[in-house]
Amino acid sequence: MATDPRSEALNSIFRTIADSDWRHRIRIKDPARSVKFYEFLGMKLIQKFEQPEAKFDLYFMAYDSPKATSAGNHVTDREGIIEMTHNYGTENDDNYKVTNGNTEPYKGFGHTCVSVDNTYFATTDPGSVPENRRCWLRVPKEADGRPNAINCLRFGYGLELISWRLLLIRIPIQDPDNYWVEVIARNPVDKTEGVKETDLSTYRMNHTMIRVKDPEKSIEFYRDVLGMQLKRTSENKDAGFTLYFLGYGPPASSSSPNGVNPTADREGLLELTWNYGTEKDESFKYHNGNDQPQGFGHVAITVDDLAKIQPEAACSRFESLNVNWKKRLTDGRMKHVAFILDPDNYWVEVLQNEKIKPRWNM
């Protein structure tokens, strides 16, 4: 059976470099703090993959309630995973830090985004926001006494706040390693205003954002090479940028669940941000997170048939398309994973969907 790119699931993954072969994810300093932070957002640690001989561990975070899109599925058969890698000892190194992709001259990766049912209840102290751009994300207090609030350190994107209602649609926060997390409303703000409860089981890992130099080249790569579909385009001409949302599955609805964003209820999307004019600058490039200083590593997709030896398999198809390889399936010790490069030199990991065709135990 020929590999079907439409069946590939985008795992929005944060990676950390731990091995020269393929372990590239968002780098985290302290797994205890990072896991707890994403649990505050309603996620669950669905898998921990320990590699003591290589001195790193992988942590896979995802929404896993009965209402979640892919609850209970294998880690390679999900949409919207955050994968974190901890290199042993970083939690005890006062000088260790990662680059979050949002500071010059290392901009590239932007943020991950979580969509929630009720951003009105998730925020408090609106009067202080226009002045100092601070807010609080409220999470119900757990039985073990975990805090019910996370400090939002900054408002990103360089946009001026027009109103508190605008902030309720898009709320930015930062995780323990200063990676940005965008929180968006899945329901219309006017319908949730005054509602004093939120259901964490309905939260979604909506998308991962990266900045791209040339949108035509990037869209062609993710559409024609990886089989994604362009779900939504958001032009912001006055601000000088356009957003492109790509992913697998059905097209975006013609109606918007929150009155603003027709993909707010989706999971596992990829957002490409194009700042006007970068495509004309031959010397311009974004930081891919794997060059020094490191932070973000890659996104990952799973395919129905990864094998190199089958002419219709994914890796053979990539060869026929003359993709740029970071790691072929036959390279290195890890024979169950491949990496290709997108037009901005971001890494894309390609894995076998273990539900369709078991290849290795994870």
How would you describe what is shown here?
With 362 residues, the chain is mainly beta. It has six helices and 18 strands. The protein has helices at 31-40, 129-132, 164-169, 189-192, 215-225, 314-320, and strands at 9-11, 26-28, 44-51, 56-62, 82-87, 109-116, 135-138, 149-152, 170-174, 180-185, 204-212, 229-236, 241-247, 269-275, 298-303, 324-327, 337-341, 347-352. The strands form four sheets. It has a seven-stranded mixed beta sheet. The protein has a five-stranded mixed beta sheet with strand order 1-15-18-17-16, with no helix packed on it. A four-stranded mixed beta sheet has the order 2-5-4-3, covered by helices on one side. Strand 17 (337-341) and strand 18 form a beta hairpin. The longest helix has 11 residues, at 215-225. It is globular and about 55 Å long. It starts with 8 loop residues before the first strand and ends in a 10-residue tail after the last strand.
Produce the secondary structure layout.
Layout: E1 9-11, E2 26-28, H1 31-40, E3 44-51, E4 56-62, E5 82-87, E6 109-116, H2 129-132, E7 135-138, E8 149-152, H3 164-169, E9 170-174, E10 180-185, H4 189-192, E11 204-212, H5 215-225, E12 229-236, E13 241-247, E14 269-275, E15 298-303, H6 314-320, E16 324-327, E17 337-341, E18 347-352
Parallel strand pairs: 2-5, 6-10, 11-14, 15-18
Antiparallel strand pairs: 1-15, 3-4, 4-5, 6-11, 7-8, 9-10, 12-13, 13-14, 16-17, 17-18
